[in-house]
Amino acid sequence: MSRRRSAMLSASAALALALSLGAGPVRAAGDYPFRNPSLPLAQRVDDLLGRLTLDEKVSMLHQYAPAIDRLGVGMFKSGTEALHGVAWSTDIDNNGAVVTATGTVFPQALGLASTWDPALIKRVGSAVGDEARGFHAQNPRVWGLNLWAPVVNLLRDPRWGRNEEGYSEDPLLTGAISTAYGSGMEGDDPDHLKSAPTLKHYLANNNEISRDVTSSELPPRVKHEYDEAAFKPAISADAATGVMASYNLVNGRPNTVSPDLNDVVRSWTNRTLFNVSDAWAPNNLVQSEKYYATQAEADAALIKAGLDSMTVDDTNGGPTVAAVKEALSKGLLTQADVDDAVRHQLSIRFRLGEFDPDGGPYGKITKDVVNSPANQKLNRETAAKAMVLLKNSGGALPLKPGKKVAVVGPLADVLYTDWYSGALPYKVTPLAGIRERAKAVSSSEGVDRIALKDVATGRYISAPATGGDLKESAATAGATEQFDAFDWGQGVLTLRSAANGKYVSRANWSTLANTADQPSGWFVQEQFKLEQQTDGTFLLRYAGYETSESWFGPNAYVKAEADGSLSLTTADQATHYAKEVVSRGVDDAVAKAKDADVAVVVVGSMPFINGREAHDRTDMNLAEGQEALVKAVKKANPNTVVVLQNSYPTTINWEQANVPAILWTTHAGAETGHGLADVLYGDVNPAGRLTQTWYRSAAELPDILDYDIVKKDRTYLYYRGRPLYPFGYGLSYTSFAYQGLKAVQKGDAYEVSVKVTNTGSRAGDEVVQLYTHQHRSRVKQPVKQLRAFERVSLAPGQTKTVTMTVKKADLALWDVTRNKWTVENATHDILVGSSSEAVRQRSTINVRDEDIPHRDLSKTTRAIDFDDYSGVHLVDETKVRGDAVAGADGGWIAFRDVQLRKPAKVTVGVAAEAAGKIEVRLGSPNGTKVATIPVAATGGVYQWAAATAPVSGANGVKDVYVVFTGDVRVKDLTLS
């Protein structure tokens, strides 16, 4: 059903697998050299590899590598989710029952990055690594030490359903936070790993719609300067031990078989990397993507490309073993290919201490570290430091302790987990945190309590007090007939039963039941809509995610049978209900607000509903009902503070214009309420900063599938509009002054220093941000680009000199004319301040290196190395490697500033299934035509041939346009 859900195995299934593979107590294996920790790592790996049979090696290519009892080698599971704490935490008790194991759940990844504090995040990563070890000590069959985190995909589009999992739209900030988190998870031992983090998801994976069949089209500059730049830092710093290949394609080739896995990613480090597939992705190559005809071909290709472990078929390694053996028998793979993949796995396992007699330096960590008091304290600190103060007018914050506070809103007294959260060991809600601090507290969720009456029979939908199937039975609306309706936007509601406090769900895939603790699961079957009809009645529509995937087609509407039981049917057969409002949530919230000195309205998202894995957002608005609540409370009490709790930029234009104070936080784990109260009451001076641009409307964004941030002016790097909140933005309870900026060249770097003074009356942190802008360039340059940052703590009146370094190489761009990094001769602005728009000090530096020469198309030039394009697609040259351009009628690619010396002939590498034509023009797509190249059908898109034509009238320095007629692919061209 779900690739990701299928990878999330129940503990019982994992136990059954472990036993079947002999992963119980291993037999004594003798004094093999591979067990000698004093020997070099490579020697130990080679010794064990040489003792394995080919069958044993092949079996290790699956996610669940079985035990090799004859050598005393245990089972190895790749992949434990650890995005912001160890996740999917289930275990088995002594009676064989599945139980939930709880650990520290830190703020969501976006919240971690919002601290702009790598030192703090390294501590968080270390705590996660400790707890992974603790869980592993408890049950190594369930919790492996190869951790699938962090996610470093850039947040170039805030509508991405998995925005909560990433760090930033900026590659430098993403690299700094991922390096900190990964290095903390790994530990500080030079030879051993506490845990083995894996970066997700390589590459350009930033849409959920059709994610396994859509292609992210990356021109070379975008690929090198932007997307790769997010992955390189952690790998280069040895803060990650590999990457997970993403579902999507890049330039027409599935990332599961991307040659980058070997050619690029492994070039960033001298360490051995262990690369893994995403769940079910190997099968996608044959099924949804239809890239290969057989699984043997697919598995051979992904192993050769650089994947070392296949996450597929749950715990069943049989299909993988069969496909790889077939590939070997047909010569698609060699034993050396298999050896390489297994060697990569073993290298990580040795570094984890698996084959050391004492388990290595981290082998003695026990489950006592899980949810330790120290980790709870760190969690509270992180939750507070991650919060971003978006507005604070008239000294609305911090709150004074003696005030009476009304805490209202649908998120006021609840903490939600997300798909990659562990289970919360305890919950300090916003209400609970504020209640510890305020003189008096009142509260209201601000949601309507409703009852639904069948207009035909007069019967109400009833829910059992003990939980169970809903049915129509009662003639009056008592407690068991009442439901709290939570509005999550775009008409989607969740219905919480007043009878038992549980949510209504299609948990049994047939009838409705009040049995869910919170909306959750892959399909999120707790989603409903009440659709008003022309006669004023309502249809109750089930809106779980599978309906959008055509699982049930139109059969999503609730119908009451003669016996009162509920089923799903079509709209024309559905039961019509009267919606009776038992109590209005807004009225209750307003009454509480009027009776308080301050109203704190907690609104935001439900992580399983408002965008998540497999489901992008279509807008960025606050839910309509929640915005109406904010407006009503603000009208009732001018002293209103909005706490926005979600995981993505939100278009809160009205709130910014009208509410005195706004504080934003992600879903921040068990200590959310304490962290929030610490900030609201001023114990912690907020210094979180936004890691994304907050736009005023989703209409400002291009199609989510358009990945060319340069051409489409995406992210703060190229966006030229006026955002609601800019990248790097965040306020403080104190003020800071900047002075004395200096930028001094020291060798191949520039040392930038500035004095920062706390000019207010409170101690606080400032995030000093350094940006540059290049004045003159051959190519389109960013409006500004983050080059360095530092979070500094200052007492009132204190001044610190903050020194940051910009390497000359940091200013390089990818030169498509010569396929290399180059630094241009240019003047650069040095911009230092508190956000990308709040520049407090500026200077310039004159960088001397080289001018990019005119293009020389007399040398064979790759088509993808164009300077501009329109109406074309970027595609795969072959299934193994290489990029090409696919043109259609009127499409074109352009090469700027070409030095033409009267070429006589043009030769183009082409592939086409049908005949077409290419024209070479100068100056524009409609400019002077200097060549027409007829293209004959070549026999297929991977069948390449040379097409030639004479050239006349091409001389001087000109822009050269290649204009397409017909579906023609071009891989290269030469003007000779």
UniProtKB/TrEMBL annotation:
The source's domain of life comes to: Bacteria
Q: Where is the CBM6 domain?
A: 859-976
Q: Which keywords does UniProt give here?
A: Hydrolase, Signal
Give one GO molecular function term.
alpha-L-arabinofuranosidase activity
Any one Pfam family here would be: CBM_6
* SUPFAM superfamilies membership: (Trans)glycosidases, Actin-crosslinking proteins, Beta-D-glucan exohydrolase, C-terminal domain, Galactose-binding domain-like
Annotated signal sequence range: 1-28
Please cite one Gene Ontology biological process associated with this protein.
arabinan catabolic process
Q: Which family does it belong to?
A: Belongs to the glycosyl hydrolase 3 family.
* Protein's job: Catalyzes the hydrolysis of a non-reducing terminal alpha-L-arabinopyranosidic linkage in ginsenoside Rb2 (alpha-L-arabinopyranosyl-(1->6)-alpha-D-glucopyranosyl) to release alpha-D-glucopyranosyl (Rd). It is not able to hydrolyze alpha-L-arabinofuranosyl-(1->6)-alpha-D-glucopyranosyl (Rc).
Q: What protein does this entry describe?
A: Exo-alpha-(1->6)-L-arabinopyranosidase
Species whose genome carries this gene? Microbispora cellulosiformans
Ranked from the top, the taxonomy reads:
Bacteria, Bacillati, Actinomycetota, Actinomycetes, Streptosporangiales
